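Quick note —
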Amino acid sequence: MNQPGPSVRLDDDELLVEDSAEFVWRQVHPQFLSDGQPSSQAFKPTPKDEGKLSVIRQSVTAEEAFEQYEHSSAGTWSVRVGEVAEAGSRVVDDSAKPETPKAHAYIDFRGFTRGQVERIAKVLRSAANAHGCQYSPPTRTTIGG
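Predicted structure written out below.
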């Protein structure tokens, strides 16, 4: 396993997720799909994320994670906590914070350089694509158009 990246102190109401076999669910915006698979962009935090890439722990189902997500999502993909660690980052549970959804956690990108973020995102994309989509919403068809 690679050494963790720059260590950033956790808040008192945050916990490091240590079970390497545990899955975390990531919602993927439709614009981050290429040929039905997430691009690495789906696994990079945006400036508003402040280095905390939102995920949901597997204590809820992939479908529940999709349903509680309040933005556009093509579906739920997964990575294991151990895969995040092997990529050089960590998963942090922040679900004790009142403003976070049930079972919320984040992949910690704080303190990494742009190049490190790119590399980690590519590793996570590969892992997620290997696992495949864990939940996608039923397609809606219109009859009589």
